[in-house]
Amino acid sequence: MLSGLGLSLLVVLMVCGIAVDFLIGEVRRWHPLSGFGTFASAIERWLNGGALRYGRGVLAWSLAVLPLVAFAIWGIDYVSGLNFLFGAALHILLLYFALGLRSLRDHMLPIACALAQSDLPRARLLTSRIVTRNTRNANETDLAKAAVESMLENGNDAVFGTLFWFVVAGGPGALLFRLANTLDAMWGYRNERFHAFGCAAARIDDVLNWIPARLTALSYAVLGDTRCASLCWKTQAPAWSSPNAGPVMAAGAGALGLALGGSAEYDGVIEQRPPLGMGRNASAADISRAWHLVAKTTLLWTIALALLAFLSERVMHA
């Protein structure tokens, strides 16, 4: 583990990072990830063109991510040499900036409130800010389904993947994962502009997300309808093009007893996506249920890691 940090200390730092995220929430102005997005867009405009687009994509990813992660490693090592607490604070700060737990709640629950008040225009506007599908003519079921799907998928992308890589490599690990995930969201499209250029970003994100996604799917199953979640994971996930989103959303939908997936409009074209889950259609109240599933999974991971740290300390001192 980075800089000789033991599991017990990493768990403490992780809890502190989660607490800071939940108490403060997303930075309203000058968020580092927004700045990174602007920086990455400039690199993409510079390199995405001409021949050898796959190689250009690899270079662009490397230029966008590796210097920042290297600087984070150097910064933590440097300030830790001055004062250990400063180094610990930097780990917490990096996790806070990379984590999106409070942000998920703040973006999703207002959609549930708008739907509960039958305010479809506002619910459509709020949903359009978190999904790429067209929401102009969406009804309550469409909007609730979109919000629940986004909640389940981002539970892994914005929360559990970040926590997993924080445990593996501290603050720089969380930063690496979040930057890679951001580039996948920006460049990982199968269209003329990004199919070759964004291939590296998509594949790197797939690799970094492979273990966290399956731990997330397992956690959703344990905390919900386990039998249904397991069945949906096994039978529905392979139909999804994403090797990680499929298990996460299929298990999450099954855990909640909801029928998700199906048709959605993207850029004016209706796409028939594979089914997710089993049961009834989603409603406004299910957005809150999905949030509670993500929150309980965060607690489950924290308790499991704390128990693992405790047992490892007992074994070491036995």
Tally of individual domains: 1
Major sheet summary line: 2 strands, antiparallel
List SSEs in N-to-C order: HHHHHHHHHHEEH
Portion of residues in beta strands equals under 5%
**Morphology:** globular
Helix/strand structural class: mainly alpha
Counted by DSSP, the helix tally is 11
Count of β-strands: 2
- The average pLDDT score comes to 94
Could you give the order of strands across the largest sheet?
A: 1-2
Poorly predicted sequence stretches spanning 5 or more consecutive residues:
none
Q: Fraction of residues in helices?
A: over 70%
Oligomeric nature of the chains: single chain
Our Rg estimate from Cα atoms comes to 20 Å
Distance between the termini: 22 Å
Please describe what this structure looks like.
The structure is a single chain. The protein is mostly helical. It has one domain (2-316). Helix content is 73%, strand content 5%. It contains eleven helices and two strands. The chain has a two-stranded antiparallel sheet with strand order 1-2. A hairpin with a 2-residue loop joins strand 1 and strand 2. The two termini are 22 Å apart. The model has no long low-confidence stretch (mean pLDDT 94).
Label this structure with key terms.
mainly alpha
